[in-house]
Amino acid sequence: MYCLINLINGDEYTTLVEDANKKNTSLNNKLEPYFVTGFSDGEANFHVSVISRKDSKLKWRTRIIFQIGLHLEEMPLLLSIQNYFKGIGIISQDLKNNKVFYVVSNP
């Protein structure tokens, strides 16, 4: 199960894709681990934030995000990377700016 999120004029629209492998043949090409690490080294970023939370036992919450952002035409590559990681994360589209993002974060 894959989750695609479209951002249109600031509004979020979610689409679930049952099996992306059947819909996109480029996903069937198995990615090599060295390609994924090298590509991530050049195109990905990590973001860590610490937020004060009074309802938390420790009074703080951390949020960790891994993200790859590319041009919309590169969506098949991001779907392949999501497939490489066994479907975790979401892919969001910013159609206004022709961008697509693969995002993995802690809940």
Structural class: alpha+beta
Distance between the termini: 18 Å
Count of helix runs: 3
How many distinct beta strands? Answer: 6
CATH class assignment = Alpha Beta
Radius of gyration: 15 Å
Q: Kindly report the average pLDDT value.
A: 81
The residue ranges in which pLDDT falls below 50 over 5 or more consecutive positions are 20-26
Query: How much strand content do the residues show?
Result: 35-45%
Tell me what the CATH architecture is.
Answer: Roll
Task: State the fourth-level CATH superfamily.
Answer: Homing endonucleases
Query: What is the fold-level CATH name, i.e. the topology?
Result: Endonuclease I-creI
Shape: globular
Helix and strand arrangement:
Blueprint: E1 2-8, E2 11-17, H1 20-23, H2 33-43, E3 44-52, E4 60-71, H3 75-84, E5 90-94, E6 99-105
Parallel strand pairs: 1-5
Antiparallel strand pairs: 1-2, 3-4, 4-6, 5-6
Structure description:
With 107 residues, this protein is α+β, with helices and mostly antiparallel strands. It has a single domain, classed as Endonuclease I-creI, CATH 3.10.28.10. The protein has helices at residues 20-23, 33-43, 75-84; strands spanning 2-8, 11-17, 44-52, 60-71, 90-94, 99-105. The protein has a six-stranded mixed β-sheet with strand order 2-1-5-6-4-3. The longest helix has 11 residues, at 33-43.
Key structural traits:
single chain; 107 residues; alpha+beta; Endonuclease I-creI; 6 strands; globular
Outline of this structure?
The chain is of the alpha+beta class. The chain has helices spanning 20-23, 33-43, 75-84; strands at residues 2-8, 11-17, 44-52, 60-71, 90-94, 99-105.
